[in-house]
Design a protein that fits this description.
Layout lengths: L8 E5 L4 E8 L5 E9 L6 H7 L9 E5 L8 E4 L5 E5 L1 H13 L2 E5 L3 H7 L1 H10 L5 E7 L2 H4 L3 E2 L4 E10 L2 E2 L11 H29 L7 H12 L11 H31 L3 E2 L4 H6 L3 E4 L1 H9 L5 H9 E3 L3 H10 L3 E6 H13 L6 E3 L5 E9 L6 H14 L1 H8 L14 H51 L1
Parallel strand pairs: 4-7, 4-8, 13-14, 13-15
Antiparallel strand pairs: 1-2, 2-3, 5-6, 8-17, 9-17, 10-15, 10-16, 10-17, 11-12
């Protein structure tokens, strides 16, 4: 029976049974004990369970909530008269739901600026709870052994990931000319090209010899014709033999398929390649020699991961604590040499907000977490609110209400890459992708121009030589 008793429930033994008392908020919001029921021998445990696990009614009394705007988890609206109101987010809706079920009025307060600048935003919330300036502290808090001895925590209600936000430095594929086919396909295409050239050369020599044509058509002429077919261009010489025409038709069908496949693959690569981030892990941060920073709260998290790897230890040595979140956010957005450690939900929300405001996205978020943890609500020691809040969280989790709230505020981080206004990166990527194609085209055009000029010069020299021969003859 003692397993069902908590400090907010009292039991008193008298002669014929056990009086079941609970703490209630009375007049002027003072706490008093009231007799709820009497348990007598022979009755079941249902009465005790109903007494021990009921929701406590606070009679509309105020409950002080220490929190801040942690988008998108806690959305708070500030009014000109200094008042604040919770308007959304998973954490915000959790507090509103608890206020409705437990019948208390919300008094939302922010931790002092001194505490925020000294301890960081989240740590300042815990400071308010430790010194009992607030009844509930919420803000994507992490349960640690140190704070567990100073405060009480609820059961988990959400998951959070602490990760890196890094400047958006795009990298583009170095090769868009040969990447369309795999290496084996290119080998097969090359072998097929050589076979067709040899067969065409043999057929042309045999046909011309049989016809008594003394003109010399070498392997170079045949190779140029086969190459022209592969580019989808017509050939200048068509064989008169049936076998040669069959070979030409087969070569034409084969080259059409290969050319179409290559052009289609090339077009899709040029149209869909948006580039990839050059910094995707901790090693990339170190290689780019970025400055590393974040709040004291994230510094403590990174400190606990130092023994995980040498890269983490080096990042920790570079880490500069800055509890001014506004300044670090602006630096992350506008500087291109800063890596910021923060919650992924906030980083993703900031990127999404830049897209919605038609701004260029200037930073990326890692897929991996420095630390993934369950978020909890914090209470002062011996709080009457912890057990009821635990039951509310469990019911919201089991019913799927939390998931429903997340769908309403879902952030599509992948849509960031489709930002049509990120024109600077797109223009740079387009120039980078097309440079290899420009090199190929320029090489072919230069070679063609060289051959054309050479033919003109040779023809002119031959004509002049012929004229000199005629003059000498006469």
């Amino acid at each position: 029976m003692k397993e069902n008793l908590t400090f907010s429930e009292l039991a008193h033994f008298d002669g014929d049974g056990i009086g079941l008392y609970s703490k209630f908020y009375g007049k002027n919001c003072t706490i008093e004990a009231r007799l709820v029921d009497i348990w007598r021998p022979g009755t079941g445990r249902e009465k005790i369970n109903e007494w021990a696990y009921k929701f406590h009614h606070h009679g509309g009394c105020p409950v002080v909530i220490s929190s801040l705007t942690f988008t998108p988890k806690m959305m708070v609206k500030n009014y000109k008269n200094g008042s604040r109101k919770i308007i959304g987010g998973r954490e915000g809706k959790l507090i509103l739901e608890a206020a409705q079920r437990l019948n208390f009025s919300i008094v939302l307060t922010y931790p002092s600026i001194d505490d925020r600048m000294r301890f960081s935003l989240k740590s300042a919330i815990l400071v308010d709870i430790i010194f009992e300036r607030a009844d509930i502290g919420i803000g994507s808090l992490l349960r640690t052994n140190y704070f567990s001895g100073l405060t009480e925590f609820s059961v988990p209600y959400d998951d959070e990931c602490v990760t890196w936000g890094v400047p958006r430095i795009m990298s583009w594929s170095n090769d868009v000319v040969f990447v369309e086919f795999s290496g084996l396909v290119w080998i097969a295409v090359t072998l097929m090209f050589i076979v067709i050239c040899l067969m065409g050369n043999v057929d042309r020599k045999f046909t011309l010899t049989k016809a008594g044509d003394k003109k010399i058509y070498g392997i170079i002429s045949v190779t140029c014709d086969v190459f022209a077919l592969h580019l989808g261009n017509p050939v200048l010489w068509i064989t008169s033999s049936p076998s040669g025409r069959v070979l030409l038709i087969v070569c034409l069908c084969y080259s059409t398929v290969i050319t179409t496949a290559y052009k289609t693959s090339l077009a899709s690569i040029l149209a869909t390649d948006k580039g990839t981030s050059a910094i995707v892990d901790a090693q990339g941060i170190l290689m780019e020699n970025l400055s590393v920073g974040g709040s004291l709260y994230e510094w403590n998290i990174l400190r606990d991961q130092v023994n995980e790897s040498e890269l983490t230890a080096e990042l920790f040595e570079r880490f500069v604590v800055d509890n001014d979140d506004v300044a670090t956010r602006d630096r992350l957005k506008f500087d291109h040499d800063y890596a910021f450690l923060a919650s992924r939900s906030w980083l993703s929300y900031e990127r999404q907000k830049m897209v919605r405001n038609n701004e260029a996205v200037t930073f990326d978020v890692f897929d991996t977490c420095v630390l993934a943890y369950h978020t909890v609500v914090s209470f002062p020691k011996k709080s009457l609110l912890r057990k009821p809040m635990d039951r509310i969280i469990q019911r919201l989790t089991e019913s799927g209400i939390f998931n429903h709230w997340d769908l309403e505020n879902e952030i599509d981080a992948n849509s960031v890459s489709a930002n049509a206004n990120d024109q600077e990166n797109q223009n740079h990527g387009a120039a980078y992708k097309f440079q290899n194609i420009f090199v190929v085209y320029l090489t072919c055009i230069t070679l063609s121009l060289f051959v054309f000029i050479s033919e003109l010069l040779v023809a002119k020299l031959q004509s002049k030589k012929g004229q000199d021969v005629i003059i000498q003859y006469f």
